[in-house]
Amino acid sequence: MAHPPKILIVEGKTDRTRLLQVLTEPVEFVLTYGTMSDDKLEELIWPLVDEDDVYILVDADDSGNKLRSLLKRELPNARHLYTRKLFREVAATPLEHLAEILHREHFEVRVELLPENRPPEGKQT
Questions:
Q1: What is the CA 83 to chain-centroid distance, rounded?
Q2: pLDDT at 125 over 70
Q3: What integer is the mean pLDDT of 71-81?
Q4: Alpha carbon 88 to chain centroid distance?
Q5: How many whole angstroms separate alpha carbon 16 and alpha carbon 24?
Q6: CA distance 68 to 73
Q7: What pLDDT score does 91 carry?
Q8: Torsion sign, CA atoms 7, 67, 36, 92
Q9: Integer Cα distance of 2 and 24 in angstroms
């Protein structure tokens, strides 16, 4: 029996587009668009409470941190993924770094983006 796809909560379309450049497995995306009203919480987040493979990857900024804090309360079993503060936004995070983050959590990613498969700096293959 096939596993249902992992669920990845992100803030917006550009985040989803960026992650799709890295992923090689089907993933269900939930887009919050950066804010979370009570209605949106009820519609988007509450149905995920009993799901096993829920991941959260939001921007490393004030609005992302507020959203993450809310989601920690509402989805205590979700796994939190983090981009570096240096990159601030998921959409601005290098593909290689996103691949590493996702691969650590057992997502299937483009292997050529992983460090062990990239040529050393300055060398071409």
A1: 9
A2: no
A3: 94
A4: 14
A5: 13
A6: 9
A7: 96
A8: negative
A9: 16
Distance, CA of 121 to CA of 9 (rounded, Å): 33
The beta strands (E) that lie in 48-122 are given as 54-58, 79-82
Question: Looking at the predicted structure, is the pLDDT value of residue 122 above 70?
Answer: no
The per-residue pLDDT for range 38-57, each reduced to its tens digit, is 888 888 888 999 998 999 99
| Half-sphere exposure for 16 (CA within 13 Å, toward CB) | 16
Spatial separation of the C-alpha atoms in residues 64 and 83, rounded to whole Å = 11
pLDDT mean across residues, the chain: 90
Q: Which two tokens stand for residue 66?
A: 């507020």
Cβ count within 10 A of residue 7? 19
Whether 60 and 84 have beta carbons less than 8 Å apart is answered as: yes
